[in-house]
Design a protein that fits this description.
The chain is α+β, with helices and mostly antiparallel strands. The chain folds into two domains: 9-107, D-amino Acid Aminotransferase, Chain A, domain 1, CATH 3.30.470; 116-261, Alpha-Beta Barrel (D-amino Acid Aminotransferase, Chain A, domain 2). It has six helices and 16 strands. The strands form four sheets. Strands 7, 8, 9, 10, 11, 12, 13, 14 and 15 form a nine-stranded mixed β-sheet that branches. One of its GO terms (biological process) is 4-aminobenzoate biosynthetic process. One of its GO terms (molecular function) is transaminase activity. InterPro entries: Aminotrans_IV, Aminotransferase-like, BCAT-like_C, BCAT-like_N, Class-IV_PLP-Dep_Aminotrnsfr.
């Protein structure tokens, strides 16, 4: 009789090897980054590598070699025979104290989404500064708002403070200035690239607290993630113009941002 000194695993009635990485994946403790690769290049590569390094240090007590990550992405693209892809890099620790492993997943390249409608939900991500793999809460709310005809969930703190989208950062336009919510949220790579390009172009932006009952006062809104920048047409019952010129200018600015060779 098996004494279970080693894990015993069945999937759909089939015995499978209890690989330590498989068990780590099931445990849901890890982090990742997502990027769109075109012609073997990506925007904000250094920001992606810094994100992976700092999160690995925080979660597992060791850094992550950026050159090795680049090499693994490059290898995956080469072995798959593609130069365009949606790429995700995951970092796990199969055995506590045993060192980390990185997993690279390639999927078909994703198009930039169209205009987005947002439904507010009372939820904030734990350890929101990390792009961690514990996404049940945001996935739950995202599925629910999509079933109600919305495109994205807007995560709002219990006191009504706006934080971020379920899978995006949200920005608001006030005159000629971009306002980002100051609540705890992930510093998305697209957001950071856009802020960098705005600084280079001398365009103003800042962070400040934004309450849900304030959003109607803004001239326009947008969301951004690895897929790009999309105008927001609606937050709950508040409508925004589809063709707001400042959002179009931000999209052009981001489109002109440099690409980095992997």
């Amino acid at each position: 009789m098996n004494d279970l000194s080693a894990p015993y695993v069945e999937v759909d009635g089939r015995t499978v090897d209890a690989d330590p990485l498989f068990l780590a994946l099931m445990g849901g403790y890890g982090h990742m980054t997502a990027m769109q690769v075109r012609e073997g290049r990506v925007r904000g590569l250094g920001l992606h590598l810094t994100r992976l390094d700092t999160a690995t240090e925080e979660l597992f007590g060791e850094g992550l070699d950026g050159a090795a990550v680049r090499g693994r992405i490059r290898q995956a693209l080469g072995e798959a025979g593609v130069r365009d892809a949606s790429v995700r890099v995951y970092v796990y620790e199969p055995e506590p104290g045993g060192g980390t492993v990185t997993a690279v997943i390639l999927r078909p390249p994703a198009p930039e989404p169209g205009p987005q409608s947002l439904r507010s939900v009372p939820y904030v991500r734990p350890t929101a500064h990390l792009k961690h793999v514990g996404v049940f809460g945001q996935a739950y709310h995202l599925r629910r708002v999509k079933a109600e005809g919305f495109d994205e969930a807007l995560l709002v703190e219990p006191d009504g403070t706006v934080a971020e989208g379920a899978i995006t950062n949200v920005g608001f336009i006030e005159g000629d200035t971009v306002i980002w919510p100051a609540a705890p949220a992930l510093d998305g790579i697209t957001m950071l690239v856009l802020q960098r390009e705005m600084d280079r172009a001398g365009l103003p932006w800042r962070r400040r607290g934004i309450r849900l009952d304030e959003v109607a006062r803004f001239d326009a809104a947008f969301v951004c993630n690895s897929l790009g920048i999309s105008p927001v047409t609606r937050i709950d019952d508040v409508r925004f113009p589809l063709d707001a010129e400042p959002v179009g200018a931000l999209r052009q600015l981001y489109a002109a941002a440099p690409w980095d060779v992997i």
